[in-house]
Model the fold of this input.
Amino acid sequence: MKTALVLNGPNLNLLGTREPAVYGAHTLADVEKLCADACAAHGLKLDFRQTSHEGALVDWIHEAGKAQAAGTLAGVILNAGAYTHTSIALHDAIKGAAVTVIELHISNVHAREAFRHHSYISPVAKAVMCGFGVSGYPLAIAGLAALTAG
Ligand code: DQA
Done:
């Protein structure tokens, strides 16, 4: 059984209390449960993480590249939070690790401030999901399963 690695970046630990009009009332623990259920339905094992540190995300993406090459990882679902719009390091890490990444955003970043319209992740992502609220996470897991099945 392959693993789906779900990585959450800065401030996503605040889900539930952070700008509920934008991100909804669900907590990160609720999101983890949604992901666990979706993984169980699609025959994937869940590895769910959050950090507010850019370098930790880089390290985890390198680790994911090795696991995918070894055949144990289906891919990464990455909500890089604000690092999406700033991080050349994450862009380079995804490219360098040659890992399958689905970029995910809870909100529709294109309907928000102009500084959220550019993503350093999108050019190196296999797919992009945004604007579905936290339901985007299980949808992305279904998408990853479909990609993995070929
Ligand atoms: C986000 C959108 C980003 O612009 C923002 O900085 C976040 C969350 C989302 O899930 O909608 O932290 O990635």
Remarks:
- Residues 24 and 113 are 18 Å apart (CA to CA).
- Helices lie at 20-23, 28-41, 54-69, 88-97, 136-149.
- The chain has a mean pLDDT of 97.
